């Protein structure tokens, strides 16, 4: 049974410190049996960050999209009438109430904390808590999933640290910003989401970078060979802590060399 004190000690030993801005990707089950579950993990991490620290997490909601793999899986095998009913029942994105999906219980706990802020994007929102939460989450443009007008770029500007807690580089959200920053024009595609505004419930469509995490594990392995990272265990979870700027800069160079792109 892992206690809050044990987790605080492990976070500190890894290099988490008071006043930092941290972007967290996590797996609760990888930690082992935590007394109090996700609540305890989040409370311990915030205690180490202190009142001047800010904690951010992805709070994605692909269930609001009909262009996501989750939607395609949900409607697979449905008749046309069943698909129509499913689409009619899809709930518009609401930053205050729409649950995150596929990001884990720790991130969902951060989203629901009193005082947490969440960005406005219906697919790829981020939630944050702490004194810089608004600076991280404000201004997330619809046609910018994870690029320069998203919380990832704000975290880069703030010199945040990435904490991979029991997950590998395949889940390193920060690498997505490098997809926008690599040399050449990255492939683009259309996305759709159901939203609600002054015009009521409606579908909106936009074009943005065709984000792809399929090679992030390879990027991470190369990054770890080339750049200094802090690695250790939090509970039973193999974990890493590193600056977002070094990760994004390295990934942008790697992508320019390994992924095809349309010349600028």
TrEMBL record:
SUPFAM superfamilies reported for this sequence:
TTHA0583/YokD-like
Q: What is the reaction catalyzed?
A: a 2-deoxystreptamine antibiotic + acetyl-CoA = an N(3)-acetyl-2-deoxystreptamine antibiotic + CoA + H(+)
Domain of life the protein comes from: Bacteria
- Which keywords describe this protein according to UniProt? Acyltransferase, Antibiotic resistance, Transferase
Which ranges of the sequence are coiled-coil? none
The EC number on file is: 2.3.1.-
One example of the protein's molecular function in GO is: aminoglycoside 3-N-acetyltransferase activity
Q: Which InterPro entries match?
A: Amioglycoside_AcTrfase, Antibiotic_NAT-like
Swiss-Prot/TrEMBL GO biological process terms: response to antibiotic
Q: What family is it from?
A: Belongs to the antibiotic N-acetyltransferase family.
Descriptive protein name: Aminoglycoside N(3)-acetyltransferase
């Amino acid at each position: 049974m892992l206690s809050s004190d044990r987790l605080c000690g492990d976070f500190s030993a890894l290099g988490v410190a008071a006043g930092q801005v941290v972007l967290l990707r996590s797996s609760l089950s990888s930690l082992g049996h935590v007394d109090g579950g996700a609540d305890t993990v989040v409370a311990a991490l915030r205690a180490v960050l202190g009142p001047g620290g800010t904690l951010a997490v992805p709070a994605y909601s692909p269930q609001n999209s009909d262009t996501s793999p989750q939607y395609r899986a949900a409607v697979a095998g449905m008749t046309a009438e069943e698909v129509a009913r499913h689409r009619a029942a899809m709930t518009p994105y609401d930053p205050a109430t729409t649950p995150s999906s596929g990001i884990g219980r720790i991130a969902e706990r951060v989203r629901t904390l009193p005082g947490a802020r969440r960005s406005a994007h219906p697919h790829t929102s981020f939630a944050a808590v702490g004194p810089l939460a608004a600076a991280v989450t404000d201004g997330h443009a619809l046609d910018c999933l994870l690029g320069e007008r998203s919380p990832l770029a704000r975290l880069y500007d703030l010199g945040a640290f990435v904490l991979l807690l029991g997950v590998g580089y395949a889940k390193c959200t920060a690498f997505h910003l490098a997809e926008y920053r690599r040399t050449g024009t990255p492939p683009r595609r259309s996305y759709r989401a159901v939203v609600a505004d002054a015009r009521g419930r409606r579908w909106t469509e936009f074009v943005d970078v065709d984000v792809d995490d399929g090679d992030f594990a390879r990027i991470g392995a190369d990054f770890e060979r080339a750049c200094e990272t802090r690695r250790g265990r939090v509970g039973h979870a193999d974990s890493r802590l590193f600056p977002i700027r070094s990760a994004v800069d390295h990934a942008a160079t790697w992508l320019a060399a390994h992924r095809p792109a349309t010349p600028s």
